[in-house]
Amino acid sequence: MLLASLMIYGLPVGPMLFKQHGDFAWTVVASMYIGNVMLLILNLPLVGLWARLCLIPYRIIGPIVLGAVMVGAYSIRNSMFDVWSAILFGLAGYVMKNGGGRSPPSSWDLSWAP
């Protein structure tokens, strides 16, 4: 994703990025370090909370996750097509997992393989 975004903005990818746009490249590296330190500071005190999330029953957490997925799918382009696509691919994954078909990751590999 990072390489694709650099290419979209017309920046060279590879070692020439550090030669031609060194200030930008090192700013990105520094922001990654700062982000990791912030995650460390936030997650160490909250590790107990994250572990307790696993104790929430599926009948409660399932609808919350599905609602968040639907809101996220709709909010990208404000299109119901995206919501129906999310539902369709979710059902396809469920059928592949429980119906004895191919697993979703292998189907993804087959769809993107040359």
Brief digest:
This protein has 114 residues and is an all-alpha fold. The protein is 81% helix and 0% strand. The chain has six helices and no strands.
Question: How would you describe the overall organization of this protein?
Answer:
This protein is mainly α. The mean pLDDT is 87. 81% of the residues lie in helices and 0% in strands. Helix 4 (58-77) packs across helix 5. The longest helix has 31 residues, at 22-52.
Average pLDDT metric: 87
From the alpha carbons, calculate the radius of gyration and give it in angstroms. Answer: 20 Å
Proportion of beta-strand residues: under 5%
Euclidean distance between termini CA atoms? 21 Å
**What portion of residues is helical?**
over 70%
Number of strands: 0
N-to-C SSE string, H for helix and E for strand = HHHHHH
**Main sheet summary:** none
Secondary structural class: mainly alpha
Low-confidence stretches: none
Compute the number of helices: 6
Shape annotation: extended
Annotation keywords:
114 residues; mainly alpha; single chain; extended; 0% strand
Structural topology:
Elements: H1 2-8, H2 15-20, H3 22-52, H4 58-77, H5 80-98, H6 104-112
